[in-house]
């Protein structure tokens, strides 16, 4: 296949070239640097996955705070939220205190728990996070005109027009993600699942429950085994020369982000070459994977999956779920 043919095929799979109905049926490819921009809780927000492009079970956004910027204090009474730091460092109000988080850290908030985000003015770099809200909160999209509260529908005409006008963000390709175990008093591995479920916790994408049933090293980071009800985050990578298992989920939508470096993505019915920050949009039933490596000399590819509702089809393959109950599993570290 020629370069021109490969480029033309990839263009057909891009989120900006597919409607929400097409994405709901067959998925799409996008990037953390692409998408419509709005403001949520006083923060610059780039929309990645949401009911405006075919997702029903979750929303995924990119939040950017420049030094000195801060959110309002807020909460979601009907949704859980996770915040994954991918660039810089900043502070999160969690479990009644302000804690510093760095790239690779994940803050988890159950329903009704107050939170806040800030990038201290003495910092030199932007504080960039990817957040997951499950289920989606439609009121976040109403001020920009993308949700019609009176008729209880998404305003797809306005959404499609905004997609055409959206501009790409500037985000360095350097991987800053790393294991961090600071603030042990709020770390999930030092709390019970019930404590996490009630007030939230600080996690890290490199630490969780070991899972290898998809053919590559993975950890289940945020899931019911550790107290989450509706939010879910899993991390993993594909070693050079190893093939990942393409799969789907019967009742979970997933946005899989290439946060650890370039990765080849499977979306719907084929593999597509990818870049850093690429995202596979895979609503319920869409076949997907991120991280395939054909070249034994290539660097490992991998990323993070934001999934909702909880992927019981995966948890049934572990020894940690039986007869409708979860057994809190041990914590392991993903060594990539």
Number of strands: 25
Q: What gap, in angstroms, lies between the N and C termini?
A: 32 Å
Query: What fraction of the residues are assigned to beta strands by DSSP?
Result: 35-45%
**N-to-C SSE string, H for helix and E for strand:** HHEEEEEEEEEEEEHHEEEEEEEEEEHEEE
List low-pLDDT spans.
none
- Main sheet makeup: 8 strands, antiparallel
Helix content: 10-25%
Q: What does the average pLDDT come to? A: 92
How many helices does DSSP assign?
Answer: 5
Return Rg in Å.
Answer: 19 Å
Described by the principal axes of the CA atoms, the overall outline is globular
Category from helices, strands and their pairing: mainly beta
Major sheet: arrangement of strands: 1-20-17-22-16-15-14-25
List the helices and strands and how they pair.
Blueprint: H1 3-13, H2 20-26, E1 28-31, E2 37-40, E3 43-49, E4 59-65, E5 80-87, E6 89-94, E7 97-102, E8 105-109, E9 116-118, E10 127-134, E11 147-148, E12 153-154, H3 156-165, H4 193-199, E13 201-204, E14 207-211, E15 218-222, E16 233-238, E17 253-257, E18 264-267, E19 270-272, E20 278-282, E21 288-292, E22 301-308, H5 312-315, E23 321-322, E24 325-326, E25 332-333
Antiparallel strand pairs: 1-20, 2-3, 3-4, 4-10, 5-8, 5-10, 6-7, 6-9, 8-13, 11-12, 14-15, 14-25, 15-16, 16-22, 17-20, 17-22, 18-19, 18-21, 23-24
């Amino acid at each position: 296949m020629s370069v021109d043919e490969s480029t033309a095929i990839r263009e057909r799979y891009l989120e900006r070239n597919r409607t929400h109905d097409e994405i709901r049926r067959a998925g799409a490819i996008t990037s953390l640097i692409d998408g419509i921009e709005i403001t949520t809780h006083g923060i610059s927000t780039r929309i990645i996955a949401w009911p405006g492009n075919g997702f029903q079970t979750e929303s995924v956004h990119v939040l950017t705070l420049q030094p000195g910027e801060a959110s309002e204090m807020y909460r979601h009474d009907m949704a859980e939220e996770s915040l994954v730091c991918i660039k810089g460092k900043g502070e999160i109000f969690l479990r009644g205190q302000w804690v510093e988080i760095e790239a690779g850290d994940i803050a988890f908030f159950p329903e009704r728990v107050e939170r806040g985000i800030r990038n201290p003015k003495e910092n030199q770099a932007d504080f960039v996070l990817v957040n997951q809200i499950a289920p989606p909160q439609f009121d976040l999209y109403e001020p920009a005109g993308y949700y019609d509260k009176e008729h209880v529908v998404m305003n797809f005409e306005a959404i499609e027009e905004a997609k055409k006008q959206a501009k790409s963000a500037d985000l360095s390709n350097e991987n800053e993600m790393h294991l961090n175990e600071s603030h042990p008093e709020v770390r999930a591995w030092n709390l019970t699942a019930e404590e996490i479920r009630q007030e939230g916790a600080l996690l890290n994408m490199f630490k969780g429950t070991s899972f290898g049933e998809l053919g590559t090293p993975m950890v289940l980071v945020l899931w019911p085994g550790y107290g989450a009800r509706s939010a879910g985050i899993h991390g993993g990578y594909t070693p050079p020369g190893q093939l990942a298992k393409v799969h789907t989920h019967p009742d979970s939508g997933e946005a899989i982000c290439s946060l650890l470096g370039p990765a080849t993505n499977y979306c719907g019915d084929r593999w597509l070459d990818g870049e850093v920050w690429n995202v596979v949009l895979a609503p319920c039933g869409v076949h997907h994977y991120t991280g395939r490596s054909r070249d034994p000399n290539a660097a490992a590819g991998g990323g993070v999956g934001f999934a909702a509702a909880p992927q019981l089809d995966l948890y049934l393959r572990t020894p940690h779920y039986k007869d409708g109950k979860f057994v809190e599993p041990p914590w392991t570290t993903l060594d990539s």
